[in-house]
């Protein structure tokens, strides 16, 4: 295609082939066949160059997700890389630089950069470093004369060279304390690139506004990217939650295999590659057969470690990745990251049977195209999610209105089956309260539902959703026709009460781009790139439709609404008991105030604020939108605070049910709840063998959850966090301690720690409502135990509580205070 990158000129190609055997000319816009080094003239088959280095061969035995791809120690040989010190002396360089400048490498290292590339080019670099805001994004410095054809002063005297030669594009960026300069042969006059690229970019930008669907967007993108780059095949695929990618659109030449609507396994793009692709948005492999140019020396002499090439355009690629490309019949590739909400949403992937060089200017244009497309995808997804959320919220509001009007909320749920099932998009539901299950629609039998509720109570917390229940709970394999997927919402923190929605099995057939397995070398056991990309069909069974994030958000709102209703019903029942009226007079007044004086206005603020944003959002100024967002955030925080207060009030009222509790199982189940919160952090949990104690397991779980939550929260500023639980035994009691190496506190304020609303750190530093530790004290006191704490600022804290070895039943007065079975709200994990 005429708009694609141009071939090298014959003079340039000959010079580069002599200096750098890995660099090779590519086909021209007129369709001529490239002649590769080592191939006979007129031959179209690529010929492999020298064998990979020993380091590269060893790297092939490293598991894909453990390869340090950001420090490959080499670059692609169609360009040159210099690593400069702060004083512009040469610390490292790609080994092919010696042939480019005509000076042995050992004479270049430690020399000023003007010795390497000439005074004029060095002046451009120094000027850019002094005046530009250098960061990880490569900065285009300009075009310089080829050093081989420029006179330069060296320690051996002045080198007088010819006066003609190909010019070089120069880019630079700063990363990890290094100034990294990259040189590539200039492919086009800048004016020609602008003339060819600008109309295409302009057409794409204008067309974006006219495309109404995501399908239209991705089809437009692959068409325009192929027009701009000339690659033979351009794919656009999207990642799912499991890391698999599905090809949504493609544009290909004749002779290229189609992958449209096929899936690639998550293992094709390892974890560290995904992280790198969020940082570096465009990546080019000019020739999968080229021998990489090593960095000399391999270790940066200033940092003492390999130079990080995360943001270098010339970074060489993993031998496994290059083998994967060759197995796919691809000898050049370019990928463009599509990043939505800071996450890798998908990729535009370009392939070619022949080696292909893409100029810097074209890569920049493609990068901007990818950013525009990412913004459009984000906007369309947000618009669709908002519309769906409002629709579900209207249905939920109708359901909650029905529940609020009737005294028996179980009967009310049964009387509105359509609303109950509709807002969760399910075919069946169960309401489990006090060991009984009320079933609506298509569900497993009552015995299975009660067993499921017991499993949920012992192994999950909060809102739980899965589209493959039988994988987590094998007993569900007998009920895939009604319960392949579930969405479970606990409506009590202490009792095993749930609302559970069910979805049936949805059998479907998916097409993989080759069998989705890793190939293992039979010789050395190392991981080798897969070779099979033929369509491979898989029938997916025992899975339901996935739960949408919006449905999970609505489920959380439903949970809060149900907790409010359950609490209100419990309060009304409590008022019927004369003994409870006197003991709980102050608490009932507080609950009434919370329910009627605080919650209703907060709901109104949040509700009318959402309506205002929905109906008038486009008319509001940015300042007004910011004010509105601040108002809604404050209203929701106040709602959380009210919920925590309600929980605190319930901790002293629900009856204790003491049993023998295995602390090993209890502690580890609570610690596992923080897996998602601590993902990406280095957190060491130290949990020894623990004894069994006597107490109410549900209450003790809440106490431990609050203490662990504090430890996780206040160690988040630590590079390496440590959370340790220990138990000491005395004659009469067990002393349980939770220690961390977090920010600690001043012992002068230790007496304030366990009070309601008492906080020793600013809310801007650590969120929370100041009720979590008060809940811990109330729970332990009801077990006839003690609570105390120790800490030092900047050195960590230790929280202790004791449990008697002989449990003493609560007094009759205390039991009456606990009253009837109450359903406390969500426990606070903040202090």
Automatic annotation (TrEMBL):
**Domain Phytochrome chromophore attachment site, chain residue ranges per copy:** 213-371
The coiled-coil regions, if any, are: 563-593
**What's the main place this protein lives?**
membrane
Give me any GO biological process, just one. Answer: regulation of DNA-templated transcription
Transmembrane spans: none
Q: What is its EC number?
A: 2.7.13.3
Identify the domain of life. Answer: Bacteria
Record GO terms (molecular function)? phosphorelay response regulator activity; phosphorelay sensor kinase activity; photoreceptor activity; protein kinase activator activity
**InterPro entries associated with the record:** BphY/WalK/GraS-like, GAF, GAF-like_dom_sf, HATPase_C_sf, HATPase_dom, His_kinase_dom, HisK_dim/P_dom, HisK_dim/P_sf
Compartments where located: Cell inner membrane
The protein in question is named: histidine kinase
Native source organism of the sequence: Caballeronia udeis
């Amino acid at each position: 295609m005429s708009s694609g990158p141009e071939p090298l000129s014959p003079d340039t190609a000959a010079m580069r082939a002599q200096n750098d055997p890995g660099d090779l000319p590519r086909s021209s816009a007129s369709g001529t066949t490239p002649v590769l080094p080592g191939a006979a003239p007129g031959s179209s088959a690529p010929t492999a160059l020298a064998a990979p280095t020993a380091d590269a061969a060893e790297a092939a035995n490293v598991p894909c997700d453990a390869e340090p791809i950001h420090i490959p120690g080499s670059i692609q040989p169609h360009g040159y890389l210099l690593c400069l010190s702060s004083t512009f002396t040469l610390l490292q360089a790609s080994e092919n630089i010696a042939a480019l400048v005509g000076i042995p490498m050992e004479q270049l290292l430690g020399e000023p950069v003007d010795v390497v590339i000439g005074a004029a080019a060095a002046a451009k670099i120094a000027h850019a470093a002094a005046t530009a805001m250098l960061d990880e994004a490569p900065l285009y410095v300009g075009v310089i004369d080829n050093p081989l054809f420029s006179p330069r002063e060296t320690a051996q005297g002045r080198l007088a060279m010819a006066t003609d030669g190909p010019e070089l594009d120069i880019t630079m960026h700063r990363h990890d304390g290094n100034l990294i300069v990259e040189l590539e042969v200039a492919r086009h006059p800048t004016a020609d690139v602008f003339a060819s690229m600008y109309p295409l970019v302009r057409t794409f930008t204008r067309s974006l506004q006219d495309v109404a669907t995501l399908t239209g967007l991705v089809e437009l993108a692959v068409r325009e990217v192929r027009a701009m780059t000339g690659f033979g095949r351009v794919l656009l695929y999207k990642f799912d939650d499991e890391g698999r990618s599905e090809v949504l659109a493609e544009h290909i030449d004749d002779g290229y295999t189609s992958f449209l609507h096929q899936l690639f396994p998550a293992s094709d793009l390892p974890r560290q590659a995904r992280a790198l692709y969020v940082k570096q948005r465009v990546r080019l492999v000019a020739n999968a057969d080229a021998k990489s140019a090593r960095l000399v020396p391999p270790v940066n002499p200033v940092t003492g470690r390999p130079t990080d090439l995360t943001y270098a355009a010339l970074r060489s690629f993993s031998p496994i990745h290059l083998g994967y490309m060759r197995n796919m019949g691809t000898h050049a590739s370019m990928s463009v990251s599509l990043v939505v909400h800071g996450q890798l949403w998908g990729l535009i992937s370009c392939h070619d049977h022949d080696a292909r060089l893409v100029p810097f200017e074209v890569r920049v244009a493609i990068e901007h195209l990818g950013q525009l497309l990412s913004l459009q995808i984000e906007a369309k997804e947000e618009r669709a999610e908002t519309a769906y959320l409002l629709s579900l919220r209207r249905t939920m509001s109708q359901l909650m209105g029905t529940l609020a009007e009737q005294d028996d909320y179980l009967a009310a749920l049964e009387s509105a089956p359509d609303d109950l099932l509709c807002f969760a998009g399910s075919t069946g539901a169960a309401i489990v309260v006090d060991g009984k299950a009320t079933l609506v629609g298509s569900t497993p039998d009552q015995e299975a539902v009660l067993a499921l509720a017991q499993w949920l109570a012992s192994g999950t917390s909060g809102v739980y959703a899965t589209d493959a229940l039988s994988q987590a709970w094998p007993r569900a394999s007998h009920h895939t026709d009604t319960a392949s997927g579930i969405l479970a919402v606990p409506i009590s923190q202490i009792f095993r009460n749930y609302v559970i929605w069910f979805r049936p099995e949805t059998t479907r057939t998916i097409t993989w781009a080759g069998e989705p397995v890793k190939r293992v070398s039979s010789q050395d056991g190392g991981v080798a790139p897969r070779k099979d990309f033929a369509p491979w069909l898989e029938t997916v069974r025992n899975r339901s439709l996935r739960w949408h994030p919006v449905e999970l958000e609505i489920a959380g709102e439903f949970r809060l609404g149900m907790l409010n209703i359950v609490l209100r019903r419990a309060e009304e029942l409590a008022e019927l008991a004369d003994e409870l009226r006197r003991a709980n007079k102050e608490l009932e007044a507080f609950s009434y105030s919370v329910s009627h004086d605080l919650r209703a206005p907060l709901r109104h603020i949040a509700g009318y604020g959402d309506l205002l944003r929905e109906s008038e959002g486009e008319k509001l100024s940015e300042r007004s939108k910011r004010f509105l967002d601040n108002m809604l955030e404050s209203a929701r925080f106040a709602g959380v605070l009210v919920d925590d207060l309600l929980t605190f009030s319930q901790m002293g009222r629900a009856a204790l049910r003491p049993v023998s509790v295995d602390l090993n199982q209890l502690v580890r189940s609570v610690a596992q709840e923080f897996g998602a919160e601590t993902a990406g952090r280095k957190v060491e949990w130290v949990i020894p063998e623990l004894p069994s104690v006597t107490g109410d397991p549900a209450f003790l779980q809440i106490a431990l959850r609050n203490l662990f939550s504090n430890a996780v929260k206040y160690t988040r500023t630590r590079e390496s966090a440590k959370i340790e639980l220990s138990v000491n035994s005395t004659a009469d009691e067990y002393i349980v301690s939770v220690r961390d190496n977090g920010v600690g506190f001043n012992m002068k304020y230790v007496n304030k720690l366990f009070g309601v609303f008492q906080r020793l750190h600013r809310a801007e530093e650590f969120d929370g409502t100041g009720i979590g530790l008060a809940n811990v004290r109330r729970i332990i006191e009801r077990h006839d135990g003690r609570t105390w704490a120790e800490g030092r600022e900047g050195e960590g804290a230790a929280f202790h509580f004791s449990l008697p070895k002989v449990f003493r039943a609560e007094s009759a007065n205390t039991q009456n205070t606990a009253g009837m079975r109450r359903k406390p709200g969500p426990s606070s994990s903040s202090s």
